[in-house]
Every structure is written in C-alpha cells, then in structure tokens.
Amino acid sequence: MQEQAHSDYLQAFRGSFTSALRWHHLDVLWQRLRETPEGWYVYAIGVKPPAETLSAADFLSFLEGVDKLLREEHEEDYCGIVYADDLKAPTMIKIYDPHNLGVVCGFSENPPLPGWVLSHMPPVDLQSDRLLPNNRKRWWRRLFGQ
C-alpha cells in the first residue's frame, strides 16, 4: 500500500501543471487556497517530508510568508514560478525558489526541483541532490517557530 502511495505521488508530481504566470493569477490561486486551508501537506525540498498536514493557521501563515518571499526575491514583473495541477481546484502546487530556477519551464533533462510542494497527498522524499541553503532553513524555522 505504501509503495502505491509513493507511486501515486510521483505520478501526480510529474503530471501536467499550469503556471500562475502573472502576479494577479497568483493572487487568485492564493485566495482559493485561503478558502480551503485544511488538509495541505507543505513539503520543503531538502527537509524530511512531513507526515502530517499543516493546521489551517500554519498553512495560512506559510502562504503569507512564501508570498512575501516570492514578491521580494523574484525580481520580475511576472510570477511564472508557481505551478498548479489545476489553477481552479488545485490538489498539488509546485513553488520554485527564486534563487534556484534553472530551466523551470520548457525542456530540460535535469529540471530543478521546486523549493516547496503543497499537496493533499502525503509527500515522498524527492531525493534532492542539493542541500537546502541555510537562509532557506532559517526562513523555514522562523516561519514555523522551530
């Protein structure tokens, strides 16, 4: 059963995603998530995948924090680094770290992993071969008071 869950997660992760291309698209996506903040796993790549979903309050805090980080550190007039499996009814969202973009869109034989994955499915270790930078570890701990 655990192997099936692992396979299902990887299949969903490798599935089709649509970008929140403009900042106002991201605002709409965040609003949808704020309306249903329960049942979300938040997986920071480079950290052990969580076994539990975040509380609604912690999830909303994460959204606020990651939105601020993206707007401050992604120095573009468009977003384009947040992807959802369905922008209107998302069940998995990939958020790319503005400082580790590589080739996010288009074709790459070794595309970068996102910085964070939000999902309704329990995440599996994506075996990132990059360590989470210390500044991101501090941000993550500060966000959740750890």
Describe this structure in words.
This protein is of the alpha+beta class. It has one domain (2-143). The chain has four helices and five strands, in the order αβαβαβββα. A hairpin with a 7-residue loop joins β3 and β4. The model has no long low-confidence stretch (mean pLDDT 84).
Mean pLDDT: 84
Given the structure, what is the number of helices? 4
Taking the sheet with the most strands, its summary is: 5 strands, antiparallel
Q: Helicity range of the residues?
A: 25-40%
Shape verdict: globular
| Beta-strand fraction estimate | 5-15%
Keywords:
single chain; alpha+beta; 12% strand; 146 residues
Topology readout:
Elements: H1 2-13, E1 18-19, H2 23-35, E2 41-44, H3 56-73, E3 82-84, E4 92-95, E5 116-119, H4 134-143
Antiparallel strand pairs: 1-3, 2-5, 3-4, 4-5
Short description:
The protein is α+β, with helices and mostly antiparallel strands and 146 residues long. It has four helices and five strands.
